[in-house]
């Protein structure tokens, strides 16, 4: 009985909504964007806009290349050359591809030089590296997290720690994964990654961009100072997020009585907008690029525009071992960790951060 | 007893009572004759017995013999053995190279046990033999362990007690590895065997007599 009840319950979700202003000193928007490392999909919606401005279009096309390597052995990521070439100069991001965070071993490289391994019990017992059990284990611990600081190791390459890690990755338990790699750097060596991993099958990919113009869209009315919304004047942040989700997945939001799939409708009060521009970028996207995009969207309101607000939404990889900074991320019945900016024309913004069940509260 | 009945008078008493001191034998003969005349129905022997004054014991107490402590055939208790330090290996003797001949000896022993290690021997037979074999001198390494710092320790087995393996590594360090929650690897020629330490918690002497059943899980 208890099991049935538990299965029927919806898993817990957390949504954190805050509001602030971009010109505020202590605004955390930049920090939050930069510490959300593994971003899968970025979408933005601009109401009352038919065509994107040239700057925005260029930015969208320039969300850098990312690389895909098959069967890369793990010891390649701890070699001195790799650390020196990529990790120290710029920010290097890596994530294993096609591994489920709750079943398989997952590896992620963060820009601050930390290599996070999320291993299952048998693998952890065989590698022999010191780690700690995952926070989301029940009575029997099935997952362990091992965290290796590459910056620390690179200072002293003859240390016992480094030798043990090398021994473990090369002889004791060699592991191979398919990696998604991305590197943000200020130099001019564009194809350094391609040449470094030329021994393995490395492919360069550009993020997929899809744009569409929606017409006669019902948009909710928002007031930037009221997060919770006034009953007749504006909508709350919660309803807004639900509505965005519907729009971004192109759901039909008319509340037709005979629609089996969805009976969601736009939260009231709402206005009808003649056209709105929706753009979605999919791929392994760097937080730095998202930061630049956010800045550009802020500057959208430098000239007077019809639109009352624009929104930018970012989703993270469901299989990433970390969500924000080094908070551990897990997959229960859904592995979402996403954030959403609503930018108003007076430089106010709303920020909503949502996480799933096996996650800590976002920062 | 006789001294109680026949007591000679002291000199002073004899003079006082005006008694002539008689000889001891004369006195004895006199007493005997007197008794015979007074008690004619008692035999000579009965009179003698009466005079003897044998003590009659009313209650019988056996002196409890202290039970001898059960002699322990095992010799010394574990505490005494540890105190005697019979099985400790002194630091000067802890050299890996000293124990390599032991390892060669062990390899030879296993080869003999398995009637020669040909590449086509069945692994089950090797396993069965290894279960009962003595492992002193084998090169053992830890493959899996619940504690990550034990993983990778390799060396020659010096001592095996009920719960622990004592190993000497190449760096001449004596390591004590608990058997529980560990998986060990023993390699002989080209055969690699895994020993699940949790099921192996027996003294090596008792292991040769134990029948191993396939019970329980081998998950650490």
TrEMBL record, chain A:
InterPro entries: RNase_P_Rpp40. Coiled coil: none annotated. This is Ribonuclease P/MRP subunit p40. One of its GO terms (cellular component) is ribonuclease MRP complex. GO terms for molecular function: ribonuclease MRP activity; ribonuclease P activity; ribonuclease P RNA binding. One of its GO terms (biological process) is tRNA 5'-leader removal. It comes from the Eukaryota. The gene is RPP40.
From TrEMBL, chain B:
One of its GO terms (biological process) is rRNA processing. GO terms for molecular function: ribonuclease P activity; ribonuclease P RNA binding. Its main location: nucleus. It is found in: Nucleus, Nucleolus. GO terms for cellular component: multimeric ribonuclease P complex; nucleolus; nucleoplasm; ribonuclease MRP complex. PANTHER family: RIBONUCLEASE P PROTEIN SUBUNIT P29, RIBONUCLEASE P SUBUNIT P29. Belongs to the eukaryotic/archaeal RNase P protein component 1 family. Component of nuclear RNase P and RNase MRP ribonucleoproteins. RNase P consists of a catalytic RNA moiety and 10 different protein chains; POP1, POP4, POP5, POP7, RPP14, RPP21, RPP25, RPP30, RPP38 and RPP40. Within the RNase P complex, POP1, POP7 and RPP25 form the 'finger' subcomplex, POP5, RPP14, RPP40 and homodimeric RPP30 form the 'palm' subcomplex, and RPP21, POP4 and RPP38 form the 'wrist' subcomplex. All subunits of the RNase P complex interact with the catalytic RNA. Several subunits of RNase P are also part of the RNase MRP complex. Component of ribonuclease P, a ribonucleoprotein complex that generates mature tRNA molecules by cleaving their 5'-ends. This is Ribonuclease P protein subunit p29. The gene is POP4.
């Amino acid at each position: 009985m208890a099991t049935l009840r538990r299965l029927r319950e919806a898993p817990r979700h957390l949504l954190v909504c805050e509001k602030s202003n971009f010109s505020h000193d202590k605004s955390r928007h930049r920090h939050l964007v930069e510490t959300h490392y593994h971003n899968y999909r970025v979408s933005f919606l601009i109401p009352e806009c038919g065509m994107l401005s040239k700057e925005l279009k260029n930015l969208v096309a320039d969300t850098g290349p990312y690389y895909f390597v098959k069967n890369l052995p793990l010891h390649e990521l701890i070699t001195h050359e790799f650390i020196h070439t990529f990790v120290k100069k710029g920010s290097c991001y890596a994530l294993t591809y096609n591994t489920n965070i709750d079943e398989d071993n997952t590896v992620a490289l963060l820009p601050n030089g930390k290599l996070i391994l999320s291993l299952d019990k048998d693998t952890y017992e065989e590698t022999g590296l010191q780690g700690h059990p995952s926070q989301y284990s029940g009575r029997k611990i099935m997952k362990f997290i091992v965290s290796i600081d590459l910056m620390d190791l690179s200072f002293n390459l003859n240390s016992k720690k480094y030798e043990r890690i090398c021994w473990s990755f090369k002889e004791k338990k060699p592991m191979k994964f398919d990696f998604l790699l991305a590197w943000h750097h200020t130099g001019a060596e564009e194809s350094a990654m391609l040449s470094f991993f030329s021994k393995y099958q490395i492919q360069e990919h550009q993020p997929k961009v899809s744009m569409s113009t929606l017409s006669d869209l019902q948009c909710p009315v928002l007031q930037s100072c009221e997060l919770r919304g006034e009953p007749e004047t504006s909508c709350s942040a919660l309803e807004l997020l639900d509505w965005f989700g519907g729009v971004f997945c192109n759901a039909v939001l008319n509340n037709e009585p005979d629609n089996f799939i969805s009976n969601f409708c736009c939260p009231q009060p709402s206005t009808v907008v003649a056209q709105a521009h929706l753009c979605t970028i999919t791929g392994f996207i760097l937080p730095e690029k998202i930061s630049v995009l956010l800045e550009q969207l802020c500057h959208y309101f430098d000239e007077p525009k019809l639109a009352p607000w624009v929104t930018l939404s970012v989703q993270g990889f469901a299989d990433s071992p970390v969500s924000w900074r080094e908070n551990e991320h897990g997959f229960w019945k859904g592995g979402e960790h996403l954030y959403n900016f609503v930018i108003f024309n007076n430089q106010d913004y709303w920020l909503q951060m949502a996480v799933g069940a096996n996650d800590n509260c976002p920062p | 007893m006789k001294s109680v009945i026949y007591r000679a008078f002291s000199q002073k008493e004899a003079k006082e009572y005006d008694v002539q001191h008689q000889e001891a034998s004369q006195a004895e003969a006199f007493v005997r004759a007197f008794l015979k005349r007074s008690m004619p129905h008692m035999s000579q022997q009965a009179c003698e017995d009466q005079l003897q004054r044998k003590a009659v014991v009313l209650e019988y107490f056996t002196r409890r013999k202290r039970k001898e402590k059960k002699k322990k055939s095992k010799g010394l208790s574990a505490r005494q053995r540890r105190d005697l330090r019979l099985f400790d290996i002194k630091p000067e003797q802890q050299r890996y190279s000293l124990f390599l001949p032991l390892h060669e000896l062990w390899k030879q022993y296993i080869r003999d046990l398995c009637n020669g290690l040909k590449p086509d021997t069945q692994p089950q037979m090797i396993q069965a033999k290894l279960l009962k074999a003595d492992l002193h001198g084998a090169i053992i390494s830890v493959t899996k362990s619940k504690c990550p710092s034990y993983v990778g320790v390799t060396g020659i087995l010096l001592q095996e007690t009920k719960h622990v393996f004592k190993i000497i590594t190449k760096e001449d360090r004596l390591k004590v590895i608990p058997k529980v929650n560990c998986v060990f690897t023993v390699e002989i020629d080209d055969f690699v065997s895994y020993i699940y330490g949790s099921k192996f918690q027996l003294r090596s002497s008792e292991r040769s007599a134990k029948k191993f059943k396939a019970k329980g899980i081998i998950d650490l």
